[in-house]
């Protein structure tokens, strides 16, 4: 449809024929109205693409089903949505430049493999028809990336999708994006310094400021102003937890104690402080292992203090099977997690590179779980231990969730607001009210 539009008659015609949302081409000449507004005085208008629906207003888009299932409507109507995803793209490109400038090599590792590996989580499983075998979608790319370091790529990183077949909430989506890197001849102390520098520069690059605002994970009504310009706090996690519990140093996790005794003590501590021991998926009492019990205590006593950027460091070896033992503290490893606004953003450690100890750690992990590992998982672990036997140089590894750092730097409190097409229930089912956008 093309027509001349000069003259009030044709203007009135097009007021009727053209609708909000139509995409049109206007040819004419620039000028100013009598009120001084810069405008195009059109000679012809061509309809390029009609809009056959009434565009919703912002109030209509408060319905999460509409926003997330028809993201294009959200983007058409809400300017902040586009800005959020432009910021996400800038975060990823900044991260790539930062690592490339430090001589890291970007690689791709398998998303599908016989065993997900690299972390403790429930995997998604599928069937490879051509192989006649079951495969799992990766939980983390860690074991593959460290094999590349063994092979001589001393600085490697990967930005990509990982999958965990577990709960969905405001900060968890079954499909998520991470960045992991591994750096030979480095340790966790150097990575803490690097993390501070990276996030400080990233925040300024995205927001033009060293500050960001986020909703506290502990108190949803609390808005936290995060200041990246200040040195990040560092807490030795076992020592600090003993102080919070009023225990003598070394009593919480005695070195050399049988796993059963450690588990019993941690369970007694959780129960004495009223901490829930419910299975998050089945809402029934669970035979929580030592790792889960320790995490419950940390979540109750320490994480609520981590409003500003805080490194929780020196974790027990029983919850960190892939990390190197601390060089001066018995029973703990050289590991840190970065918490901001009471939420975890990074996980990193000096890598365990002794194949004999690594095999013992995998066995300990299986004993904690109380469930035999699958044949595929055992094979993947044996393959990794075999790679270590060829010599993994002293190495430090680091991982950060892209979705969460985007939430932080864009002021979003719902992970669905930073994922273009988040996982949703089947059309027609009731939406999760607790996951509605803010």
Descriptive account of the structure:
The protein is of the alpha+beta class and 438 residues long. The chain folds into two domains: 48 residues, no CATH class; 346 residues, Bira Bifunctional Protein, Domain 2 (BirA Bifunctional Protein, domain 2, 2-Layer Sandwich), CATH 3.30.930. Helices cover 34% and strands 22% of the residues. It contains twelve helices and 16 strands. The strands form four sheets. It has an eight-stranded mixed beta sheet with strand order 4-8-9-16-15-14-13-12, sandwiched between helices. The chain has a three-stranded antiparallel beta sheet with strand order 1-3-2, with no helix packed on it. A hairpin with a 5-residue loop joins strand 2 and strand 3. Helix 4 packs across helix 12, helix 8 runs parallel beside helix 9 and helix 10 runs antiparallel to helix 11. It is elongated and about 90 Å long. About 1% of the residues have low confidence.
């Amino acid at each position: 449809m093309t027509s001349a539009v000069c003259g009030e008659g044709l203007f009135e015609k097009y007021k009727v024929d053209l609708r909000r949302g139509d995409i049109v081409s206007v040819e004419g000449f620039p000028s100013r109205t009598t009120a001084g507004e810069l405008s195009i005085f059109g000679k012809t208008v061509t309809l390029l693409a009609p809009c056959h629906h009434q565009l919703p207003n912002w109030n209509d888009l408060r319905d999460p089903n509409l926003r997330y299932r028809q993201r294009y409507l959200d983007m058409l109507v809400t300017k902040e949505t586009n800005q959020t995803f432009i910021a996400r793209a800038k975060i990823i490109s900044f991260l790539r430049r930062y690592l490339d400038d430090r001589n890291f090599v970007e690689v791709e590792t398998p998303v599908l493999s016989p065993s997900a590996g690299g972390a403790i989580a429930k995997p998604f499983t599928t069937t490879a028809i051509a192989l006649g075998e079951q495969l799992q979608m990766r939980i983390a790319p860690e074991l593959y990336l460290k094999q590349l370091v063994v092979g001589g790529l001393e600085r490697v990183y990967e930005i990509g999708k990982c999958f965990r077949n577990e709960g969905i909430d405001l900060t968890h989506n079954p499909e998520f994006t991470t960045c992991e890197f591994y750096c030979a001849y480095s340790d966790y102390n150097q990575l803490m310094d690097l993390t501070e520098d990276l996030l400080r520069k990233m925040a300024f690059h995205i927001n033009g400021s060293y500050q960001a605002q986020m909703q506290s994970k502990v108190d949803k009504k609390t808005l936290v102003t995060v200041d990246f310009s200040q040195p990040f706090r560092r807490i030795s996690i076992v020592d600090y937890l003993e102080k919070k519990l009023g225990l003598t140093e070394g009593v919480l996790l005695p070195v050399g104690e049988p796993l059963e005794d450690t588990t019993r003590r941690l369970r007694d501590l959780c129960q004495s402080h009223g901490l829930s021991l419910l299975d998050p998926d089945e809402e029934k009492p669970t035979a929580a292992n030592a790792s889960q019990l320790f995490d419950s205590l940390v979540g109750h006593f320490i994480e609520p203090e981590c409003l500003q950027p805080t490194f929780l460091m020196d974790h027990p070896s029983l919850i960190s099977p892939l990390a190197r033992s601390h060089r001066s503290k018995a029973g703990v490893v050289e590991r840190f997690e970065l918490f901001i606004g009471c939420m975890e953003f990074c996980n990193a450690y000096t890598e365990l590179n002794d194949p004999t100890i690594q095999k013992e750690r995998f066995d300990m992990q299986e004993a904690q779980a109380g469930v035999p590992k699958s044949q595929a998982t055992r094979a993947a672990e044996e393959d990794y231990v075999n790679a270590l036997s060829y010599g993994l140089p002293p190495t430090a590894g680091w991982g950060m969730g892209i979705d969460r750092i985007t939430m932080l730097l864009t002021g979003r409190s719902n992970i669905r607001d930073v994922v273009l097409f988040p996982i949703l229930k089947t059309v027609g089912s009731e939406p999760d009210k607790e996951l509605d956008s803010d």
